[in-house]
Amino acid sequence: MRIRKKRNIKKNRKFEVKLIHPQMKKKIWLSSPHMGGNENKYVQEAFDTNWIAPLGPNINEFEKGLESYIGEDKHVAALSSGTGAIHLALVQLGVQEGDEVLCQSFTFAASVNPITYVGATPIFIDSEQSTYNLCPVLLEEAIKDRIAKGKKPKAVIAVHLYGMPYNVDAIHRISEKYEIPIIEDAASALGSEVNGQKCGTFGDFGIFSFNGNKIITTSGGGALICNSKVKKEKAIFLATQARDEAPHYEHSHIGYNYRMSNVLAGIGRGQLEVLQDRVLARRSIFETYKEALKNTPLQFLEEPVGTYSNRWLTTVVTASYAEREKIRLYLQNENIESRPLWKPMHLQPIFQKYPRYINGISENLFEKGLCLPSGSNSTAHELSRVIKVLNNF
Ligand SMILES: *Cc1c(COP(=O)(O)O)cnc(C)c1O
Question: Closest residue (by CA) to atom 2 of ligand 1?
């Protein structure tokens, strides 16, 4: 008995030594929440006034704040997620079972999933090299081909990926020419601009996400940007179970439970106050990486003339898949999180069966690209740790 006990102690001691190994450096995250300071105050107000519901003063103020930030006479409905916002945009555009929706392939699955919620078919379009976003040439080719095959697409979902604006001029010219509405996925592009106009305001509908990793967060949430008050009210109606005007519960539409909570909108109000700082911080992180790594073969994505990116995540393109993986694992070994660029939707097992118009650009970016830690709360010390590792590599 006694001997066995002693042995166990010895074993435990060995284990302890491993845990406090000096190699265990503090984790550096890709992008983590960054509170401004007043979030607590607004959340406390919600508690003090008992507005613990999907309506209340914080929601109204958060929406007003977003509307005045993006301008262009837009009307914003605060929702429970960016995904829900895309879903409601499709519903309001009347996209139905059997319809086709053109969608940027190089994106997060949340851009595409709602197309399937309404029973429509996603058609994937590849990217252009200059923005990593929707290629205008392929988009027009796809529209012509779908029309020739007998079905005009009902909508286009265009994405400002990693905060970099897509080619707004070219894409919207095509949308007007063929009269196909655009849902502008600005989930990660709050604060980005084209010719001084805020992303999210170009489409027939726009969407933002306030998920925990985005440039500002409500821990989870989103918004639908509408070009009329009527469409905003319709969005809120749909997002709150589609209750008709009546003292009892009367329904003549299918509804959803997508409204943002007044408690979380309190976080949003506080975050909105520091949005400009967050954009500047992310842009400065990009510049720091670019300058410090200029003597490496890593390639950075430049802003096309007239565009302003919030630089949500700094991305680099390496020489090859093998090198990308070596760098990623090398960073991981130093407890630094990095991530390959999005795997294109047309390569995802669940989306294999859908039509696609492909030029190879998104596949190449997926193979060789890497997102670097870009949180606005990264310290100078943390950034220099990442840079040192990359330069050593
Ligand atoms: C985050 C994100 C979404 C989804 O937003 P949620 O609020 O997480 O539902 C959609 N599209 C893109 C490009 C995103 O980055």
Answer: 187
